[in-house]
């Protein structure tokens, strides 16, 4: 396991700047999070001790301790008593987590998240049609076949539906887009898992997914984006209706 001595973690700490006197632990946590998601420290690296971090930030050790405890709760770091504090993941791993928590704390409107998801999914379909080769399409075919098989089993249908979207996102070959969609889907999952609540809705969803697949297979990025726009409009309307009924 990498340690902080003679590695980039020790040097990266010098990028930290002093925080104002009396700054709460949340500000310390934000500075540390910025450092950890910068990509300058390798995953699994043991971080400098609290006293060194406190000295660089110009705060007391208690503020650093509280900040690290908060980051541990979020899964950013792993605090091991008697051993040290270790970075849990790469910048690509950590950014979705921090974004997800930031959105949750900010209490973003569900309707706005639905609009954001629609735009991202449409762009994913366009990129997938541009980049996917025939040999890349088997996972999409498998998801479609599972949807056909489970057309009356709505729970497993929803899982196959989700798998289709995840596979399509992988074909877009854009890590940042993948991260953003991961955040938005996570926030909406409690609702989207219940979005298809009848066999007729499942059949409509299947037809829309098949249209997206055909366009991606043909390499027609405009058709793929259009097909996904149709699907997103239907899915968003269905979900909005369900949310309004609950409200």
Would you kindly provide a written description of the structure presented here, covering whatever features stand out?
The chain has a two-stranded antiparallel ribbon. The chain has 2 domains: 8-90, Winged helix-like DNA-binding domain superfamily/Winged helix DNA-binding domain (Arc Repressor Mutant, subunit A, Orthogonal Bundle), CATH 1.10.10; 108-246, Up-down Bundle (Four Helix Bundle (Hemerythrin (Met), subunit A)). A hairpin with a 3-residue loop joins β1 and β2 (84-87). The model is unreliable at 1-6 (pLDDT under 50). With 247 residues, the protein is mainly alpha-helical. It is 69% helix and 3% strand. The radius of gyration is 22 Å and the shape is elongated. α6 (110-131) packs across α9, α7 (138-149) packs antiparallel against α8 and α10 (199-218) runs antiparallel to α11 (221-246). The protein has 11 helices and 2 strands; from the N terminus they run ααααββααααααα.
Search tags:
single chain, 247 residues, mainly alpha, Arc Repressor Mutant, subunit A, Four Helix Bundle (Hemerythrin (Met), subunit A), 2 domains, two-stranded antiparallel ribbon, 11 helices, elongated, disordered N terminus
On the 0 to 100 scale, the average pLDDT is: 81
Taken in chain order, the helices and strands follow as HHHHEEHHHHHHH
- The CATH architecture name of the largest domain reads Up-down Bundle
What CATH calls the topology of the largest domain is Four Helix Bundle (Hemerythrin (Met), subunit A)
Helix amount, in percent?
Answer: 55-70%
Oligomeric assembly: single chain
How large is the radius of gyration? 22 Å
Low-confidence regions = 1-6
The CATH homologous superfamily of the largest domain is termed GntR ligand-binding domain-like
Structural class: mainly alpha
